[in-house]
Amino acid sequence: MPAGRPGPAAQSARRPPPLLPLLLLCVLGAPRGGSGAHTAVISPQDPTLLIGSSLQATCSVRGDPQGPTAEGLYWTLNGRRLPPELSRILNASTLALALANLNGSRQQSGDNLVCHAQDGSILAGSCLYVGLPPEKPFNISCWSKNMKDLTCRWTPGAHGETFLHTNYSLKYKLRWYGQDNTCEEYHTVGPHSCHIPKDLALFTPYEIWVEATNRLGSARSDVLTLDILDVVTTDPPPDVHVSRVGGLEDQLSVRWVSPPALKDFLFQAKYQIRYRVEDSVDWKVVDDVSNQTSCRLAGLKPGTVYFVQVRCNPFGIYGSKKAGIWSEWSHPTAASTPRSERPGPGGGACEPRGGEPSSGPVRRELKQFLGWLKKHAYCSNLSFRLYDQWRAWMQKSHKTRNQHRTRGSCPRADAARREVLPDKL
Amino acid sequence: MSQREGSLEDFQADSSISPLPLLEAKIHQTHSLARLLTKYAEQLFQEYVQLQGDPFGRPGFSPPRPPVAGLSAPGAGHAGLPLPERLRLDAGALAALPPLLDAVRRLQAELNPRTALLRRLEEAARRARALGAALEAVLAALGAEPREPRPEPAAAAAAAAAAAAAAAGAFPAKLLGLRVCGLYRDWVSRTEADLGQLVPGGPA
Description:
The complex is a heterodimer of chains A (425) and B (204). With 425 residues, chain A is mainly beta. Chain A has helices spanning 22-28, 362-376, 384-396, and strands at residues 5-6, 39-43, 48-50, 55-62, 74-77, 80-81, 87-91, 94-99, 111-116, 122-131, 138-145, 150-155, 167-174, 181-182, 185-186, 193-196, 206-214, 217-220, 224-226, 232-233, 241-244, 252-255, 268-277, 284-290, 294-297, 305-315, 333-336. In chain A, the strands form 6 sheets. In chain A, strands 1, 13, 14, 17, 18 and 19 form a 6-stranded antiparallel beta sheet that branches. Chain A has a 5-stranded mixed beta sheet with strand order 3-10-9-5-6, with no helix packed on it. The longest helix of chain A has 15 residues, at 362-376. Chain A is elongated and about 115 Å long. The model of chain A is unreliable at 1-6, 8-37, 343-359, 401-409 and 411-425 (pLDDT under 50). Chain B has a single domain, classed as Growth Hormone, Chain: A.
C-alpha cells in the first residue's frame, strides 16, 4: 500500500483540448495519399494513474465524413500494437480501449498511447503517467564545512522508485522563529542532496526536513533538529609531508598543518593517519593521534614506497559536546623507507627476512632498551635522537631484530622528552 | 554549364571582397564548424527520441511532418539551386531554429525535468546562432546578397507554438520537439554539404 497522501491528479481526465491552431492540426493530421486532413481526440488526455489500476480511453475521429471511421482504427502503447480484443467500437467515429492492471510508466515523460488510422498514420496521442506516490524520505544527515554552509543528504522512501518524476525539496527553518526556507542547490554530493551556501546562524538549532512530490501525491520526512556547531567538518590537513627518519629503514615521519580555516575557533582536533604500500589497496589506520601535527610510523618494510593520508575531526567547537565529523583525507603523499644494506634472500636488498616471527610493537622494543639502560647507564634521561642512533647502530651491527609488521604506532610527544647519555656499546 | 558553378571563383568578381586567403580560411572554419555541429545535432536527435520513449526513434516511426512556424525541411530541389541561393536558405533556416529550440526546451522542462537534454537543447540554440552568424559573414565576404529578413516575431511565433503544444497535451509536445530536432539536424547537415562545395578542393 503506497504511503503518502493521494494527489489531486489521480485518475483524473483532462478536458478535451480546445480548437488547435493550424500548427497542431497539421502535426496530428497531415494529409496522406491525397486524403483530406483528419485528426482525432483521445480522452482522457495525459491521465495519471496508480500502478495496478485500469484505464478506459476513447479515440474519436474528427474531420470530413469521408475520413477514417472507428472500424479501421487501432491502438498502440509505447509503439506496440494492442490486441484487438482490448478495443471496441462505440459508434461510427469512436473506438474505445480498456486496459487493466497497468504497470509503471517506462519513461518519466509518460507512456505513449496512440490512436492510428487503418493505414498506420497517427491520428492522436495521449501520455499515460502510471506510478506510485512518494514515500517518506528518511535518513537525513547534514554537515557544515567550517561553519560556513550546510550540506544535507537523504534517502528517498521506497528507494525512490515511483515510476514518475518526483521532486525532492529540502526545507529548513530556525527552530523557534523564522520562516520556512527552501534549499536551492541540489545534487551537490549525489542525487539526493542539497547545499545551503550562506546565511546560517550558530548557537541556535535548525529544523530540517525533506518534502517529496509527484503527480500522485506528496510525503514529508521526519524533522531533523541540529545545531550547526555540532556537525562541523573542515578541510583536510594541508602541507602533509612524509620523510625518512635518518637511516631507519622501518620508519617514516609524517608532519602536517592544522586546518587553517578553523584556526580562530576553539576546538580540539583529532587526527587520523592511514598509509599503505604502493602496490596494495589495503590501508592501515593510525587513529590514536590527538591534537598533534606530527607522527612517526614504525614497523614499515625497508626500501618500500608508502602512500600516506591524514584527516582531521574538529570536535568540541565552541564547547560542542558532539563527536564532530571527519574531513576528507588529504591528497596522498608518498615516501620510501631506506633500503637495507644487508642483502636479503635471493640477493634482493629490500626483501624482509622470511620466517622470522613478527615482533611486538616499537613500544616493546623501547621498553627493552630502557630496561637495558637502567642497568648500564648512569643517567635516566632519554632522547629519541639518541634512541635512533642506537637503532641505527643495532642495524649496522647485524644483530637479530624483530621486524614490526603490525599497526604502526605514534609515540606521543610526552614520551620522548627524556634525556639520555649515549651508550658505550 | 560549368561544373564549378557556385564555386569560390564566381564570387571573386568584386574587388571589394576580402582577400582570398582570409576568405578561404573563413570558409574552412565555417565548414568545420558545420561538420562538428552535424555530429552534435545527430546526438541531440538520438537523445531526444530516447527520452520520449517508443515509438519515437523506432525505425518505422513516421509521424506527420508539416512545416513548423514557417520553417520546412530542405526541399528535394534544394541541391539543384545555385550555391548562393542554397547558402542563403541555410542561413535563413539557422536563424529560425534558435527560438524553436528554446520553445522545445521549455516543453521538455515539463516532460523531462532535470535531464541533460535540457542543456543540449540550449546548446543547440547557441550553436545554430553561431553557425548562422558565421555563414552570414561568409556570404557577406563573398558579396552575396543578404537573405530576406525573417518576419519580426519569429521568437513570439515559436513561443506561441510551444504554448499551444503544451495546452494540447504531452504527446503533441513530444511531436513538436521531434520535428524541431529533426529540422535542426537536417539544416545543419545541409549547410555542411553546401559549404563543402565552397571549400577549395571540395566536391563540385
